[in-house]
Amino acid sequence: MKLDFHRKETKVGIVIISAACCMPGMVPLDEQARRIVEQAITETGVKADVKIMQATTAFFGGVPKQIMAEIISRSQSGQLPVPAILINGKPISYGMPQLENVKSALLAIANINSR
Fold first, then answer.
1. Which of 29, 33, 56, 107 has the fewest CB atoms within 10 Å distance of its CB?
2. Distance, CA of 98 to CA of 114 (rounded, Å)
3. Is residue 9 one of the residues assigned to a domain?
4. What are the pLDDT digits (tens) for 71-115?
């Protein structure tokens, strides 16, 4: 799967890595994470595309190996690393995102893109 976030009108791409494909009980957490991301987009005014990526897609090459290694490592240490949030390919959250962290990351990337 190729994520095309480099269109002219969109400079920010957000990926939510979901484990609901493997664990249906994760659906409410994914929905909550998406609401947080959408609220951050609304509150910052940053234009962004949001995509949901299933954990199996991420595992089989949908994200860089370092990100999957971090998800696996956190999982093995007893943490719940999903949903994971990536902004322009950089992880900003493993587990439930915090609104202020997402907003800060969006604003930082928007600032970089506006240069």
1. 56
2. 24
3. no
4. 999 999 999 999 999 999 999 999 999 999 999 999 998 877 666
Beta-sheet strand order (sheet of 84-87): 48-54, 12-18, 84-87, 90-94
Three-class SS state of 84: strand
Structurally, how many domains does the chain consist of? 1
What pTM was computed for the model?
0.85
Q: Is residue 2 part of a domain?
A: no
Residue numbers of the domain that contains 48: 22-113
Model pLDDT for residues 17-38, shown as the tens digit of each residue: 999 988 899 999 999 999 999 9
According to DSSP, the residues that pair with 51 across neighbouring strands are: 15
| Structural domain includes residue 12 | no
Higher-confidence position of 102 and 2: 102
The Cα 53–Cα 89 span in angstroms is 12
**Is 4 a member of any domain?**
no
22, 55 contact by CB (below 8 A): yes
